[in-house]
Amino acid sequence: MHKDIATPIRTQEILKKYGFAFKKSLGQNFLIDTNILRRIVEHAELTEASGAIEIGPGIGALTEQLAKSSKKVTAFEIDQRLLPILKDTLSPYNNVTVIHEDILKADVEKVIAEEFIGIDDVMVVANLPYYVTTPIILKLLTENLPIRGLVVMLQKEVADRIAAKPGTKEYGSLSIAIQYYTEAETVMIVPKTVFMPQPNVDSAVIRLVKRAKPIVEVKDEEFFFTVTRSSFAQRRKTILNNLTSQLPDGKSKKDQILKALGHTGIDPTRRGETLSIEEFGRLSDELLLYFK
Ligand code: SAM
């Protein structure tokens, strides 16, 4: 029986053996607590028939736990220096593939089709590089991939915004962009002490389970997201002021914006943060009549 990778001693040994120096610019904060890793994996509810996609395996701490709990793991790692290390640390597992690629540039749909043949249940499980958490999550959700969802570690502050409900100060266009596709829930708060090196911010794990269909049906998704982003451009401003100043030709279409708000029963003096995702959906469909 070999020792788990995610202990302070084994991690130090591996780093020393390969003379590995962390690159801050790549968000390299490795997990050194096996219990935390096991709990993350539990939240993914994998079975022996599941596939797992990992982003940024580092030296393999999470990859190892995923390999033990699923049928197949495919991990994307951008840092070439980690490839020989992963080959070594993951050598006891024959169900892991590491792809040397930037996840933001990868054709994930193709990789899933090739790597997970005969596997129906695929989850993304990762301790994300914190400098690109939002682009990674949005890429994986908007590409309409055949995945059940994501269980990912990220900055607590971003997790709070993603899972926020209307009427809270964290609720905004990011909450809507993600909750449009998924049911979002923070499942763990994680202290800085379980990382090497320790990050400057607190961390959390969120679980995003894809909805069978988006939470609201809208006529034009792109315009819906334009309306939501515009509505939060300046949080102190009313929805009317934000929409007139942000939408294309909004200033000259104030009357039409007022009409659309009236038709959807939304008081123009409300602030974006008080609107539910369903209200944004109805508003966007009304505004579409005047803006497309
Ligand atoms: N999974 C490991 C762990 O938990 O110990 C490492 C997590 S560390 C927070 C983030 C990892 O993502 C690093 O290994 C880093 O090199 C990698 N990474 C950073 N940007 C990436 C990108 N765009 N695509 C793929 N991997 C990336």
Automatic annotation (TrEMBL):
Residues 36-212 form the Ribosomal RNA adenine methylase transferase N-terminal domain. One of its GO terms (molecular function) is 16S rRNA (adenine(1518)-N(6)/adenine(1519)-N(6))-dimethyltransferase activity. It catalyses: adenosine(1518)/adenosine(1519) in 16S rRNA + 4 S-adenosyl-L-methionine = N(6)-dimethyladenosine(1518)/N(6)-dimethyladenosine(1519) in 16S rRNA + 4 S-adenosyl-L-homocysteine + 4 H(+). Its EC number is 2.1.1.182. Signal peptide: none annotated. Belongs to the class I-like SAM-binding methyltransferase superfamily. rRNA adenine N(6)-methyltransferase family. RsmA subfamily. This is Ribosomal RNA small subunit methyltransferase A. It comes from Peribacillus huizhouensis. The gene is rsmA.
